[in-house]
Amino acid sequence: MAHAESGRGHPASSEMYVPRSMQVWRGLMNWLAFFLQVFLQILRGTPSLAQFLSYIGLRQSFLSSSSAAAAVAAPSPAAVAAFKPLPVVEIPLQDSCPTVHAGSDSDVSITAADDDDDDLLAVEKLTIVLDLDETLVCAYETSSLPEVIRSQAIEAGLKWFELECVSSDKECDGKPKVNYVTVFERPGLHEFLKRVGEFANLILFTAGLEDYARPLVDRIDKDNLIGERLYRPSTVSTEYREHVKDLSSLSKDLCRIVIVDNNPFSFLLQPLNGIPCVPFSAGQPYDDQLLEVLLPLLKHLSLQRDVRPVLYERFHMPEWFQMHGIPASGNGF
């Protein structure tokens, strides 16, 4: 009876007993099965790191951290689609001048200029209207210019000078107010003025005040290559923007006049005559826009009887203004 009770009290131990040799054999078979899976995967194609880690049970912890990092580094497609920056205006250097036929949306129809040599003999000299700030130079109030920006620009080789501007405003004691300005010249400025002055009439047109702009231009144009200077009072106000530069006040014939300005809204009244250039700042010491981009384009335009077809083909400014809420009727067509 005791023996029977002892047998009923330990049935599990007799059933769970597995010889050590059998345990070793099962472990060996498991490892062989694992390597067989890896081998078959290699035959199908090289396994990825994630696949290999999944075989040995490490995929979850490894990929959870890498997936989180990827999510931070790469925005979701929805976020990318929601961000639509303004188109960057680039100036191509093509020498061809194809015929332009604008669509009905812009209400523009312009044919390409005739480049016949005999006709060009009778064409008047090209007139180039140049903006000042962020086009030819960049200027900062000396007291507010960070020393690190100043030092880096000078060390990189940017030409600069300090300007004392006497304002028409008065101090509390009745003396004229004096402002000190640090000016950085755009690389290639003097050579640019000299070379474009060989084939064009130059006009400086700035929305800046004369008290500031006049002494500045005296410094950068010591050879008097710029034939005429216009300041803020010469700009006009429109329904859409203030300080607009109306080219019709300079020439009744818009076929042979262009304006170079970093602010396209400055020429919204004559969008087909505008060249939107890249803004210049002290943080761009290796800028090459004047000599490598603008000069070849202006030289090409000087050979055209009408500059507008070439500029329309390259920049499509009427459509750009329409995208910014300025209709074609306000573009002066």
TrEMBL record:
Pfam families assigned: NIF (PF03031)
UniProt domain FCP1 homology: residue ranges: 121-301
GO molecular function: phosphoprotein phosphatase activity
Listed SUPFAM superfamilies: HAD-like (SSF56784)
SMART domains per UniProt: CPDc
Superkingdom, taxonomy of origin: Eukaryota
Family matches, as NCBIfam families: HIF-SF_euk
Protein's name in the database: FCP1 homology domain-containing protein
Organism annotation: Eucalyptus grandis (Flooded gum)
